[in-house]
Amino acid sequence: EESKSIIERQESSHKEAVSCSLRLKNELVAAKDKISNLEQELGENQKYMKKDINDRSAQIEGLRSIVETNVESQKKSGTRILKLEQELKETYKLMKTKEVMLQDTHNQIINLLSDTRDLKSRLEVTSAQLVEKEHITEQQFLQQKE
Fold first, then answer.
1. CA atoms of 1 and 3, how far apart (whole Å)
2. Which of 26, 67, 103, 133 is the most buried (most CB within 10 A)?
3. For the segment 14-66, what is each residue's pLDDT rounded down to a tens digit?
4. Which helix (H) or strand (E) holds 10?
5. Which residues contact 29 (CB under 8 A, 6 or more apart)?
6. 13-41 per-residue burial string, b: 16 or more CB within 10 A, e: under 16
7. How far, in Å, are 56, 65, 71, 140 from residue 23 at the CA level?
């Protein structure tokens, strides 16, 4: 249950990261388009324009870096999720195997208890028979003695 909750939270985080990544990529495309338009409109004022372009390029590089970092993070999260899912499956299989073993052991104990009861019952019968035979033998001995 806890693993399921962790996986759900990780999936939610992964979806948020993908959404953020797409938004950042869209912002990057929009920033590039804006730079292109500014170059056409402000061709006469290249000195100021170059400074603006350089500033925006730095922003774009920063965004690109963020996007690349987010993409790497998503890949790592995806790999971690897959590993956790595999561990969960293996733990479940192990749990099921142990459950079967426990049930087998329980059944063996029940069978042993039943066998023990049977042996006890037979022992009581045999003991009663021995006591009876001893009594008969004692009576025969006393009768022969007389």
1. 5
2. 67
3. 898 888 889 999 998 898 888 777 666 766 666 665 777 788 889 989 889 98
4. helix 2-41
5. none
6. ebeebeeebeebeeebeeeeeebeeeeee
7. 17, 14, 13, 109
Query: Residues 85-138: pLDDT tens digits?
Result: 999 999 999 999 999 999 999 899 999 999 999 999 999 999 999 998 888 888
φ and ψ of 42, to 5 deg:
-110, 35
Q: What is the per-residue pLDDT for 124?
A: 92
- pLDDT, residue 43, reads 62
| Amino acid making up residue 97 | T
In this structure, the dihedral spanned by the alpha carbons of residues 92, 93, 97 and 98, taken in order and rounded to 10 degrees, is -30
